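We store amino acids, tokens; thus:
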Amino acid sequence: MIDIVALHGEREVARFDLAHGADPAVELVRRGWAGTAVSATRRSPDDLTIRYAVEPTTVASADPRDVPLDADLETEDLANLVAYQRIAAYAVVRSSHGVLVTELSTRTNAAGLWNLPGGGLDPGEEPADAVVREVHEETGQHVVGVELLTVLTRHWVGRAPSGRVEDFHAVRLFHTAHCPQPTDPVVLDVGGSTSAARWVSEADLAGLPLASSVPEALAVAGVTVP
């Protein structure tokens, strides 16, 4: 379960459980608030609390949208749909060598695209700890100064690499982090979701095929990809 807490100054002005498929920013606007995610911490091994610093808003809430469906799904596939929510932590990692990126492997549905290092939280794992672990597993780099940057979500119905058809709700916690002693990246978790890793300059990011959420996360971190 994901608990969203909105703070206006030091006062709690809203609290709600994030429904499957929902986006916390949209849900806050529906309640009259807009703001920035400031922390994401565990309440228990199974629950996560995301806190937002908010201000009142009169902006109209987003219109509900149909959930995108993969084009190859048949009626019988939808009859066996499994709801699945995945909470993952990623980071915009900077160093004197540039920005750290990872290439998605054939074990994913986006093989060949470049992502930010990160992955799913282990049971009971704090998001910041997951960033440190995932960056090391996927690139061999050690990072410090992990700070929450933004929360992005995506909701769709599609076929997982395993073949299972899922009503998939991705909750992605993007962070910033610093690598004080960068080295040539090496994928330590061989056979996982990462096939390669490298440092690139901010200018060279535009030349890479990026995973869908990466440009938005980079923009929040102050990196503009044309």
Q: What stands out?
A: The chain has a mean pLDDT of 93. Helices lie at 24-30, 75-79, 127-139, 214-220. Residues 127-139 form the longest helix (13 residues). DSSP finds four helices and eleven strands in the chain.
